[in-house]
Each structure stands twice: as structure tokens, then as C-alpha cells.
């Protein structure tokens, strides 16, 4: 993948809800910014570094994990614009309200267009496997289907991360498999259905409330029957 990519399907499910929120806030406020770049592959990352448009090498930018986006100015005639007079601060406010970090706050290399997964995870942690942690996606409001589709797309983009992602998936799912598809399916179950092992060994609140109500009902019935019988014999 060498050119510029700009579509929500390549955005990591951990920030996809937030990016959708940014899009709807921009539209609601009538601000002239549009989604310019999402995932960034090796060729584009390395050419960006040599041109000086990015300071990061491959796997050193959140874009390489789908966990960053760039919104750029859009003129009425449909041209992209980085003009300083655009309301970048309002774009930054919208990023931050959606829970994303904003590159406009960086010291030194200020990146007004850039929003990313908040610093709860560093790119080093993502590279060490956290990018494949189903809980990261679940915390961002992702569905199991969104996460599974993204993982199956990302897997062949990231051969260098396979070892770390397999280890992460084994930790997150408890499944001792080296098969990526089996691990992704187990991850989908973690997002979609909670932890099945925990659920079977410990009754859910709903089950306990129903059982309690049943006991109460049977006790009252027994008391009524006892009273009726007592009434008849005296
Ligand atoms: Zn960026």
C-alpha cells in the first residue's frame, strides 16, 4: 500500500467512533475540513520522512496502526488547503472533545491536521502487540464485526508485527493457538460476548435476581397454603 489512504475502514476500530464524531461535529459547525489521510503504509511513511513531512519512520507513527487521522482544509472548489488562516484551533477542540489527542499541542513539530488515539498507548506499546488487543477496540466502542474485519485487513499489512500480535491475542483471549484466524475469532468473542469462562463459573446478576425472586415467591405461596390449611382445621 503506497499511496495516500483515506477511508474509515482503515481506521482502527479503537478510534473509529471518535473519528465519526469529529466528522459530524465538523458538519454541524460548518467547518471546512475533510478526512485527508488515515492508515499509512511503509512506502508513504518512509518517503514522508525523507521529505520532512513526518519525523517518524515505519511503525513509529500512529498512522501505521490506523490509530491516527489527518483532517485537512477543503476549499469550496474542492482543493486541499493547509492555509494558516483556517480555524485549526476549532478542529483541535473537536478532536479533543471526541477523546483524541491533537498534534496542534505538540512542541517543536506542530501538526495541526493530526488527531490520534490518546497517549494511553504509546506507539511502542502498539508495536509490541497492543494494536491487536481486542479490549483496546472494545474500549473505543467497536463491535466484534468491525474489529474482526479490521484485523483481517491489517494482518497482511504488518508482517513485522505478527509475532507480537499473536502473543497479545493469546494473552487477551486465553487461547493457546498460533493460528491468526482462530485467534481473531476468539478476540471477536471477547468483544462480543464477554469472558465465557468467567460467565460459566459465576452466575450473572440477572440469574441471581431471578433466583432470589423465585425463592421469595415460593416462600410466600407456602405461607398462604399453610394459613389456609390452619384456617380449615381450627
Ligand atoms: Zn497525521
Termini separation: 90 Å
**CA radius of gyration:** 26 Å
Ligand inventory reads:
zinc ion
Mean pLDDT: 90
Helix content: 40-55%
Q: From the coordinates shown, what is the CATH architecture of the largest domain? A: 2-Layer Sandwich
What are the secondary-structure elements, in order, as H or E?
HEHEEHEEHHHHHHH
* Poorly predicted regions: 195-202
CATH topology of the largest domain: Muramoyl-pentapeptide Carboxypeptidase, domain 2
Shape: elongated
Derived structural class: alpha+beta
Number of domains: 3
How large a portion of the residues is in β-strands, by DSSP E?
5-15%
In terms of quaternary structure, the protein is single chain
CATH class of the largest domain: Alpha Beta
Q: How many beta-strand elements?
A: 5
Largest sheet: 5 strands, antiparallel
Helix count?
10
How would you describe what is shown here?
With about 230 residues, this protein is of the alpha+beta class. The protein has ten helices and five strands, in the order αβαββαββααααααα. The protein is about 50% helix and about 10% strand. The protein is elongated. The termini are far apart.
Annotate the secondary structure layout.
Elements: H1 13-28, E1 33-37, H2 42-51, E2 68-74, E3 80-81, H3 88-97, E4 101-102, E5 114-116, H4 123-127, H5 134-139, H6 144-154, H7 162-173, H8 180-193, H9 196-201, H10 205-233
Antiparallel strand pairs: 1-2, 2-3, 2-5, 4-5
Bound molecules: zinc ion.
The site of zinc ion has 5 residues, from strand 2.
Quick overview:
By secondary structure, the chain is α+β, with helices and mostly antiparallel strands. The protein has helices at residues 13-28, 42-51, 88-97, 123-127, 134-139, 144-154, 162-173, 180-193, 196-201, 205-233; strands spanning 33-37, 68-74, 80-81, 101-102, 114-116.
Amino acid at each position: 500500500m503506497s499511496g495516500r489512504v483515506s477511508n474509515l475502514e482503515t481506521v482502527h476500530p479503537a478510534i473509529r467512533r471518535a473519528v465519526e464524531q469529529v466528522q459530524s461535529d465538523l458538519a454541524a459547525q460548518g467547518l471546512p475540513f475533510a478526512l485527508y489521510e488515515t492508515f499509512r503504509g511503509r512506502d508513504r511513511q518512509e518517503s514522508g520522512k525523507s521529505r520532512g513531512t513526518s519525523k517518524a519512520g515505519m511503525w513509529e507513527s500512529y498512522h501505521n496502526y490506523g490509530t491516527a487521522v489527518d483532517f485537512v482544509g477543503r476549499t469550496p472548489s474542492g482543493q486541499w488547503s493547509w492555509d494558516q488562516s483556517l480555524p485549526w484551533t476549532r478542529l483541535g477542540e473537536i478532536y479533543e472533545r471526541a477523546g483524541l489527542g491533537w498534534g496542534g499541542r505538540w512542541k517543536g513539530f506542530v501538526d495541526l491536521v493530526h488527531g490520534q488515539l490518546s497517549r494511553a498507548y504509546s506507539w511502542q506499546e502498539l508495536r509490541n502487540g497492543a494494536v491487536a488487543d481486542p479490549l483496546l477496540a472494545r474500549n473505543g466502542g467497536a463491535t466484534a464485526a468491525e474489529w474482526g474485519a479490521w484485523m483481517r485487513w491489517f494482518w497482511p499489512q504488518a508482517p513485522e508485527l505478527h509475532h507480537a500480535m499473536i502473543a497479545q491475542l493469546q494473552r487477551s483471549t486465553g487461547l493457546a493457538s498460533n493460528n491468526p484466524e482462530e485467534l481473531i475469532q476468539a478476540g471477536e468473542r471477547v468483544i462480543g460476548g464477554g469472558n465465557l469462562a468467567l460467565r460459566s463459573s459465576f452466575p450473572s446478576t440477572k440469574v441471581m435476581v431471578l433466583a432470589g425472586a423465585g425463592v421469595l415467591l415460593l416462600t410466600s405461596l407456602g405461607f398462604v397454603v399453610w394459613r389456609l390449611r390452619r384456617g380449615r382445621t381450627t
